[in-house]
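Hi V.,

You were right to ask for the full record rather than a summary. Here it is.
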Amino acid sequence: EAAEPVWRALEATATLTPYQRFDWLYGLHIAGADADVEIAIAVIRQDGAVVGLLPLGVNRSRVLTTAKFLGTGQSNADWMIVAPSFAPTQSQLLTLFADLSRTLGGIDLLSFQNQPVSWNGVANPLLHLPHTPGASNFYWASIGGTPTPFIEHRLAPKRRGDLKRSRRRMEEAVGEVKLVRVSDAD
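Predicted structure:
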């Protein structure tokens, strides 16, 4: 709650997924999703201006202190909230995380999962760090303009058949079926 004004102001212009919005994470918190972690909201400033925000949950055990994005268990995309002007280098990120670890009394492991390569045309700044695809990698595709062969080879044959049958039935009932952008329909 203490970070809410800064967070909401940054949300107005920053790049973030729906899963880093204040309302989403606050709702999860109220529902008890992060009851077992210490909440740490890292506000990143550059020349006095807020340029980033990391909503983290810190888990301290007797052996290891870990930090990860709040809501990771309920989302499929984690992201460091960044202002359009903020594109940190690997060196800046490492310095930032070292400072964060010191401020929080030591973090042994920062775990960033479900990291898209880009979001709304902005490259993911966390991917400047060494990384590997996860076992459950974040896959995405654009909707619209995607050629049919792309869709056809991504779906299991039974699923393709089900979709084609559904489309045929719908076309028999109401006529031709096609997807259009709202702006194209005007």
